[in-house]
């Protein structure tokens, strides 16, 4: 299994975020799960990739040419694919991955998560989408998603299709037993 992990290109303002990235990466490697990610050596991206590699796992990076040229590409990956831009990066990551997980991150992480989740709702794929809610980072977002559902802009079964866990073991177990709901437009 290959899991795409979306996360920050920075470390955030507390060591606990880097710790959670290393914890997830180590657990993935220990379970024989490979990583697909944005290809960077910086921030949480670098932390999760380094942890998977240190655990003997395989890491597949996908990075736009412009970011590679800024010397942000991770040098020690199993495979690094260089693409023309961000749209191609997301499409290639979606093609390579069997599941998607968002860790703490910024707007890019949100973009990647929401696109993968939307594609799942529309039936473009049946892959699970998840939030690794380390240290309650996504609590306010999850509250807002519940407001969307309560207000009729998100069907409850589509809200429930987003897996949410705050520890690596239950997160990966939930991804393994995921069953997609009915598609949005049947």
Q: What is the residue-mean pLDDT, rounded to a whole number?
A: 95
Q: Looking at the structure, what is the overall shape? A: globular
* Portion of residues within helices: 40-55%
Q: How many helices?
A: 8
Proportion of beta-strand residues: 15-25%
The sequence of SSEs as H and E is: EHEHEHEHEHEHHEH
Number of strands: 7
Structural class: alpha/beta
Termini Cα gap: 28 Å
In the residues, how many domains can be counted?
A: 1
Largest sheet: 7 strands, parallel
Gyration radius (Cα, Å) is 16 Å
CATH architecture classification: 3-Layer(aba) Sandwich
Major sheet strand order: 4-3-2-1-5-6-7
* CATH third-level topology: Rossmann fold
Task: Return the CATH class.
Answer: Alpha Beta
| Contiguous runs where pLDDT drops below 50 for at least 5 residues | none
Features of this protein?
single chain, alpha/beta, seven-stranded parallel beta sheet, 7 strands
Task: Explain the overall architecture.
With about 190 residues, the protein is of the alpha/beta class. It has one domain (about 1-175): Rossmann fold (3-Layer(aba) Sandwich). About 45% of the residues lie in helices and about 15% in strands. The protein is built from eight helices and seven strands, in the order E-H-E-H-E-H-E-H-E-H-E-H-H-E-H. The chain has helices at about 15-30, 45-55, 65-70, 85-95, 105-120, 140-150, 155-160, 170-175, and strands at about 1-5, 35, 60-65, 80-85, 100, 130, 160-165. It has a seven-stranded parallel beta sheet, sandwiched between helices. Helix 1 runs parallel beside helix 2. The chain is globular and about 45 Å long. The model has no long low-confidence stretch (mean pLDDT about 95).
């Amino acid at each position: 299994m290959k899991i795409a992990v979306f996360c920050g290109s920075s470390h955030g303002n507390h060591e606990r975020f880097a710790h959670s990235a290393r914890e997830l990466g180590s657990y993935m490697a220990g379970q024989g799960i490979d990583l697909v990610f944005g290809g960077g050596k910086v921030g949480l991206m670098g932390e999760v990739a380094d942890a998977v590699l240190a655990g003997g796992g395989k890491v597949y990076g996908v990075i736009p040419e412009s970011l590679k040229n800024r010397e942000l590409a991770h040098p020690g990956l199993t495979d690094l694919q260089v693409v023309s831009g961000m749209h191609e990066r997301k499409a290639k990551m979606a093609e390579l991955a069997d599941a998607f997980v968002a860790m703490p991150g910024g707007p890019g992480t949100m973009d990647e998560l929401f696109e993968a989740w939307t594609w799942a709702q529309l039936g473009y794929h049946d892959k699970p989408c998840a939030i690794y809610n380390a240290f309650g980072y996504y609590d306010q977002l999850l509250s807002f998603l519940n407001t969307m559902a309560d207000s009729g802009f998100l069907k409850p079964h589509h809200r429930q299709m987003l897996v949410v866990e705050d520890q690596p073991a239950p997160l990966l177990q939930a991804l393994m037993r995921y069953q997609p709901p009915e598609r949005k437009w049947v």
